[in-house]
């Protein structure tokens, strides 16, 4: 194992989870909680809406979902739209959208994989009708939970319903990442050799196979947008470097050649570039290079000497989220490729790390990290609104990967 990697990137997931104490009990494997033409309003940053459901379950989940969206403010009077949800047939929900004056502008029956999923999909339909942008409520999460006492991989919906534990390695598990079609997960685990290897998990049958197990560190695997290639970090030839292989973990080629430590590769939305972290300038900074290899250029943020954990927005290719250090803590920043500038978008009282974009290119999921807690939150990068997705009974949750609604 490369000591240098672990000593120099102390806020990256390999270090964070390796140092975690025993998990908070109480995380259940079957879920923590189950829990016409429209005039698009674009001038309001915070649109007042009324949200209701014809059953207590629909009402609670609908208000939770739409209340987490930074573009809306839930209120009973003076609203621009009245959004109503009612159950249909099995795994169906009817969504009705009415203007404040009483005109019905949307009435649609939405199907899902479950009644809960149908409600989240229906809420996404309402968001698209009101804002013109896609919703993200029907997203799927893969994340690390510690309900068993060891970090394991879980999947569930965005609001931590219908949660399943899908690994039982009883060893350190890290960095789960969805394939674009949602059929597979790649993740790093120490369970077989005691060293970090990358594994592939088929979600249809939960069959696991070794993806990459080479000499040294194997970590940070992430699919290209078309699912044909995987970027990863390998250290078998010396320093941790960026490599790219095919979707079966073969035909692996080295893409960086430096004396530095590279980490956190992420493809651009069109697959032509890779953003990654390198400490070639003495501290972690962000760099972009062609996916085929070649010279890398630094993304100058002017915010911090520590910038890591990049995630390139699939919905808005101009935006790159990342973690930066401010003083003794960490917050989320967004780099704008159209202006070559960056800004801090989170205001978390504790560390805010591990950002991952949601489907609208405005919101993201991040980990709120303190000495005794790891929790998942939604962040509106336009107005700073943050909404907790997990409560204390869920235990330690971190390292979310997002599968956009399908």
Question: Can you describe what's shown?
Answer:
This protein has helices at 3-8, 13-18, 56-67, 115-131; strands spanning 47-53, 72-74, 81-87, 92-99, 104-111, 140-145, 152-157, 164-165, 173-178, 184-189, 197-202, 207-212, 218-223, 229-234, 241-246, 253-254, 262-267, 273-278, 285-290, 297-298, 307-312, 319-326, 329-336, 341-344, 351-357, 363-370, 373-380, 386-388, 397-403. It is mainly beta and 406 residues long. The protein has 2 domains: 3-31 and 137-403, Neuraminidase (6 Propeller), CATH 2.120.10; 47-131, TolB, N-terminal domain (Rossmann fold, 3-Layer(aba) Sandwich), CATH 3.40.50. It has a 5-stranded mixed sheet. Strands 8-7-6-29 form a 4-stranded antiparallel sheet, with no helix packed on it. Strand 25 and strand 26 (363-370) form a beta hairpin. The chain is globular, with a radius of gyration of 21 Å. Residues 1-44 have low confidence and may be disordered.
Which labels suit this protein?
406 residues; single chain; Neuraminidase; 4 helices; 2 domains; five-stranded mixed β-sheet; Rossmann fold; globular; 10% helix; mainly beta; four-stranded antiparallel β-sheet
Largest sheet: 5 strands, mixed
- Uncertain ranges: 1-44
Class from secondary-structure proportions: mainly beta
CATH class of the largest domain: Mainly Beta
CATH fold-level label of the largest domain: Neuraminidase
Helical content class: 10-25%
CATH superfamily of the largest domain: TolB, C-terminal domain
Mean pLDDT: 90
Strand order of the largest sheet: 2-1-3-4-5
Q: How many distinct beta strands? A: 29
Q: What is the second-level CATH architecture of the largest domain?
A: 6 Propeller
If helices are DSSP runs of H or I spanning 4 or more residues, what is the number of helices? 4
Number of structural units classed as domains: 2
């Amino acid at each position: 194992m490369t000591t240098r990697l672990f000593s120099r990137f102390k806020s990256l997931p390999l270090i964070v989870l390796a140092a975690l104490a025993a998990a908070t009990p109480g995380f259940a494997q079957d879920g923590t909680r189950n829990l016409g033409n429209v005039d698009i309003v674009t001038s309001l940053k915070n649109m007042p809406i009324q949200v209701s459901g014809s059953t207590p379950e629909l009402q609670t989940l609908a208000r939770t979902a739409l209340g987490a969206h930074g573009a809306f403010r839930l209120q009973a009077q003076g609203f621009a739209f009245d959004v109503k949800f009612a159950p249909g047939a099995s795994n169906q929900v009817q969504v009705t959208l009415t203007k404040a004056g009483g005109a019905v502008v949307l009435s649609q029956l939405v199907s899902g994989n479950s009644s809960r999923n149908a409600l989240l999909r229906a809420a996404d339909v309402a968001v698209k009708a009101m804002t013109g942008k896609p919703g993200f409520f029907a997203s799927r999460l893969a994340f690390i939970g510690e309900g068993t006492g060891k970090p394991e991989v879980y999947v569930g919906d965005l609001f931590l319903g219908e949660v399943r534990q899908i690994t039982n390695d009883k060893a350190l598990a890290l960095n789960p990442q969805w394939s674009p079609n949602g059929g597979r997960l790649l993740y790093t685990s120490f369970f077989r050799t005691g060293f970090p290897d990358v594994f592939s998990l088929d979600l249809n049958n939960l069959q696991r196979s070794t993806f990459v197990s080479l000499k040294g560190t194997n970590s940070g695997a992430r699919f290209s947008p078309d699912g044909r290639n995987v970027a990863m970090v390998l250290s078998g030839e010396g320093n941790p470097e960026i490599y790219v292989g095919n979707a079966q973990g073969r035909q692996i080629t080295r893409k960086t050649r430096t004396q530095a430590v590279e980490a956190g590769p992420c493809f651009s939305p069109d697959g032509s570039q890779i953003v990654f972290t390198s400490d070639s300038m003495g501290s972690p900074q962000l760099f972009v290079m062609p996916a085929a290899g070649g010279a890398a250029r630094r993304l100058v943020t002017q915010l911090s000497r520590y910038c890591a954990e990049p995630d390139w927005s699939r919905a808005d290719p101009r935006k790159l989220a990342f973690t930066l250090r401010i003083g003794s803590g960490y917050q989320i920043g967004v780099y704008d490729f159209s202006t070559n500038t960056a800004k801090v978008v989170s205001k978390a009282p504790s560390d805010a790390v591990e950002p991952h974009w949601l489907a609208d290119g405005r919101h993201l999921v991040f980990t709120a990290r303190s000495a005794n807690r790891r929790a998942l939150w939604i962040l509106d990068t336009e107005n700073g609104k943050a909404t907790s997705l997990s409560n204390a009974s869920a235990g330690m949750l971190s390292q979310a990967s997002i599968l956009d609604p399908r």
